Here is the input.
Amino acid sequence: MFRTRLGAVAAAVAAMAWCATSAGAYEGGAVANGGTISGEVKLQGAAPAAKPIEVTKDKEVCGQHEIKTEDLLVGANGGIENAVVSITNITKGKPMSPADATLDQKGCQYLPHVLLFPAGTTVKINNDDGILHNIHTYSTKNAPINMAQPKFKKTIEAKFDQPEVIKVTCDAHGWMNGWFIAEDNPYYVKTDANGSFKLTDVPAGDYELKAWQEKLGEKTQKVTVPAGGEAKASFELAPK
Ligand SMILES: [Cu+2]
Here is the structure.
């Protein structure tokens, strides 16, 4: 009886392990005659101005420069900075190389505000301020972190094995917030200050392209990449 039950458990574990590696697995390799996808992510309608944040704690460090809200940064032409554009359904393409991903806590802000990296990356979380921060990640697929980082603890390392969009806050300074985004394939990019983006070395084919922005949510569209050519794709995100 015991033997049989153990055998069943072993079979179930083996099946789960197989699922974990086969579902959503990405295969990287050489891309012959790949194309590009480029475009812009724009805001529909008038752009709100970033609001100054009142520093209420550790003013001698956090108050040395002006801190503004970063949840919706819009350029002069309506382009949205820090939106993330990615292919959602690609299983084969350029290699997914391990990334050096670092989050700095500097002047009581997260730099960068949105940090992208491939799943499996170990992120370095630096405290450059010489005061107490407390990193808190709101993840469900990866183990959440809620850890005090006193001034003598310069770096915390945390590994993110599962693809996930993760909100990050500091429990010591209520205005500090940012995002970790662990991707399941290497076709992802953050928009620049004008909302522009470009993905390169995309194998020819039909894909679903997603634009995500922390405040406006996400939109998808179909895109066809020609061999060695350029596909254009632009997004308009509506205010909520
Ligand atoms: Cu902090």
